[in-house]
Amino acid sequence: xxxxxxxxxxxxxxxxxxxxxxxxxxxxxxxxxxxxxxxxxxxxxxxxxxxxxxxxxxxxxxxxxxxxxxxxxxxxxxxxxxxxxxxxxxxxxxxxxxxxxxxxxxxxxxxxxxxxxxxxxxxxxxxxxxxxxxxxxxxxxxxxxxxxxxxxxxxxxxxxxxxxxxxxxxxxxxxxxxxxxxxxxxxxxxxxxxxxxxxxxxxxxxxxxxxxxxxxxxxxxxxxxxxxxxxxxxxxxxxxxxxxxxxxxxxxxxxxxxxxxxxxxxxxxxxxxxxxxxxxxxxxxxxxxxxxxxxxxxxxxxxxxxxxxxxxxxxxxxxxxxxxxxxxxxxxxxxxxxxxxxxxxxxxxxxxxxxxxxxxxxxxxxxxxxxxxxxxxxxxxxxxxxxxxxxxxxxxxxxxxxxxxxxxxxxxxxxxxxxxxxxxxxxxxxxxxxxxxxxxxxxxxxxxxxxxxxxxxxxxxxxxxxxxxxxxxxxxxxxxxxxxxxxxxxxxxxxxxxxxxxxxxxxxxxxxxxxxxxxxxxxxxxxxxxxxxxxxxxxxxxxxxxxxxxxxxxxxxxxxxxxxxxxxxxxxxxxxxxxxxxxxxxxxxxxxxxxxxxxxxxxxxxxxxxxxxxxxxxxxxxxxxxxxxxxxxxxxxxxxxxxxxxxxxxxxxxxxxxxxxxxxxxxxxxxxxxxxxxxxxxxxxxxxxxxxxxxxxxxxxxxxxxxxxxxxxxxxxxxxxxxxxxxxxxxxxxxxxxxxxxxxxxxxxxxxxxxxxxxxxxxxxxxxxxxxxxxxxxxxxxxxxxxxxxxxxxxxxxxxxxxxxxxxxxxxxxxxxxxxxxxxxxxxxxxxxxxxxxxxxxxxxxxxxxxxxxxxxxxxxxxxxxxxxxxxxxxxxxxxxxxxxxxxxxxxxxxxxxxxxxxxxxxxxxxxxxxxxxxxxxxxxxxxxxxxxxxxxxxxxxxxxxxxxxxxxxxxxxxxxxxxxxxxxxxxxxxxxxxxxxxxxxxxxxxxx
Length: 993
Description:
Layout: H1 24-30, H2 35-39, E1 49-50, E2 54-57, E3 62-64, E4 67-68, E5 74-79, E6 89-92, E7 95-97, E8 106-108, E9 114-116, E10 125-132, E11 138-148, E12 157-158, E13 166-170, E14 174-184, E15 190-198, E16 200-210, E17 218-228, E18 235-242, E19 253-259, H3 275-315, E20 321-322, E21 331-332, H4 333-336, E22 341-345, E23 351-355, H5 356-360, E24 370-374, H6 381-394, E25 401-406, H7 416-423, H8 432-441, E26 444-449, H9 456-459, H10 479-484, E27 494-500, E28 515-521, H11 524-540, H12 558-568, H13 580-595, H14 600-613, H15 615-619, H16 624-639, H17 653-672, H18 678-694, H19 704-711, H20 713-722, E29 725-728, E30 748-751, H21 754-767, H22 772-781, H23 789-795, H24 802-811, H25 815-825, H26 832-839, E31 842-845, H27 851-867, E32 871-876, H28 882-885, E33 893-899, H29 905-918, E34 923-927, H30 940-943, H31 945-949, E35 952-956, E36 963-968, E37 973-978
Parallel strand pairs: 2-11, 13-19, 24-27, 24-28, 25-26, 26-27, 31-32, 32-33, 33-34, 34-35
Antiparallel strand pairs: 1-4, 3-9, 5-6, 5-10, 6-7, 8-9, 10-11, 12-14, 14-17, 15-18, 16-17, 18-19, 20-21, 22-23, 22-28, 29-30, 35-36, 36-37
Helix pairs in contact: 7-8, 11-14, 11-16, 14-16, 16-17, 18-21, 19-20, 21-23, 22-24, 23-25, 24-25, 25-27
């Protein structure tokens, strides 16, 4: 069932209440009801509890309060991800209790908050809160508590040093340096970072990482042996750096400067000199002084450049991460980066297809002064630039200086040197003037990321004040001058890369000439590579927390695809068309393989298969942003790495698309660092839904003024920034430019994707009951049973008018849409009477080439069987294969028909065996089908099928033919019968009527 809140709320699976169950609240008091029992009972679908993950310093006291849209009256706190035991704390009817209430380390406050006293490491765990809004309605949230231990001192400590910043060592001969962090939690890895090493050699480099058991603080140390190459003039500068992302340190870097006395050349004069000698000596001395001054200036400049490069490498580490999912964590760019396709268009309009891997090596673009990377949302522009930054940090042989600027954080009047200065720590000893001179006199690459976001970061009013620490506007090279290409003669070594969505060449702030790189997304092989990397990363986070074979999402998943392949390869040997013994044995083996999945390649194969057979993969193929979000959601789901996704029902298209939209909204507002946008998002989605529904959900381009009039200008910019809408160069009713957008002046705007349009329209429908008559009228307009995607999304919401939709679809005989809608609605949201009404009709099943619809038909048939409802008749059309029939649990049928199908001798025999043994129908029809005229080598058991099952098999060569044939089990052939009237049990109509 689809239930989605905004990004700013933690989502939980909303399960409809089961009938005839005890009050979970009363059972909870006894401590005998499991977490899953609670979830099968009454759960409030209109509110959500939010409990963020937290970190607590050992020995400290912390009060954990969860937020809820509604007031909670009773609280039950459990240690762990489920509640199979007695709650450790509870507040019920104002009375405190629980197994840990009043203990040394736990307590509960009168407002229901959990208090951790004198935190100890044993308290690190997942915790679950079950909160009640009243006697019947409740909700829950699970969160993680980490216990941290800060080392003392809170920085990397180097022997022979007294502080945590810069250590100066006057060295003689050789020595050993040891850098360590003691008794920290979590474990903090260390590494040496060499800036320059004039006159000293490091002859031995040993690393000692000594993590103790997981419940204790951990120690780590690294050592370094050094030897002086000369007695004087030694100057080495390097750092001991924490390479992790822990926040338990006040300083991640301790710098070491090894020096000796400077080398002073001996000075002596001859005892006897004359005037000529004095003149020559004076000239030489003057020349030496001048040479020394120039040399010192050059040396100082080179040291400044090297030091600035080192500082930027340290600072830019924060840019080497991506956060694809709102409930995930920052992931190193090196773990996920995958080469994608792109097209280069040079100044002469010559086009070349390359990969981003080639571009990272600076091939094709290394000498270009101005390059723009163009691509829609999610095409990998920022990921590419972050990989470039990561590569520059790792490769210390690069001669150029890299400057990385996110344009959403700056204004065009700001100076590059001021922006760089603001990025550096205040104690680095580098001035703005140093940076400015470095930019003028050295090779540098300036990357300006997000040209299209430059206006959004300042124009979108979300109700928050502007930052009070805004960078000043001073002398030097401004961002606008970099974009326009001014001052090239002053900054001769500068190259500029800009990323943006599609720009209007006539109004772009980054005008020609430039080399254009069009980002084209992933190929199929590159998608597989990306999936493997995602799975490898999520598996590295620990063991899977759930068994995938217990998840209904995996029914008929990998097992069926392999068995169908085996059937297609003619491994059919027995008289009933299948070697059942072999298939049963191999089915068990395949199931065991799935239970023991643990390697990244095996998980990746499952994720790949999901995309290969899932209809959304094809729908999102031309929308890489949506595709990448789906990859991460599915990888997290299948690996169990993020518990939030364990309850995600991947077979429901409304659930998946809702999750993708939430991730899009999260991605946008994280970029803007905006905290309170929940109401804004709901308003925008509601307005977009109304526009989509009023336009009968037809994906078309509308002019800019149309959107401004219907959703307002500020909402339009946000919707474009999120990716709910996109600009289009296709025709529209007007051609005015987008207002105040940095990348604009397109002819129109449309929904980013059909699924987003249908989802927004569906949400608007279920939230506004007055729309139901129009929805019914839209259904009545359909003359065929073609796919009506909007209905699936509507039925995915809990408030959907399921009964009214089903009745309208039955009236129009749109059976395949009806089946999809029932599948999307699930078990708990459909009254049994709906199935009884549907069962009284002759149902036509087609479109089985779609994976989603095949699953829907399985669910549909199984529901009738479980409810013990006899169906009038079912007709399968030409795309119904034998392997698929074997996966169905058919209900009792008055008749079963195959229309325009083609079956071999073995397949035909297998079908007869199948339905004779199942006894689901008395009459089996083959209408306009290509089936064997006669079966040979019949066993006695086959001839006896008619007597044991009572089934009658009939064939009509033409649906309008008045004659039909009956199958003779004794002879294995058809016998012609003649009737004066059409005696077939149903009207044989095509699936499109």
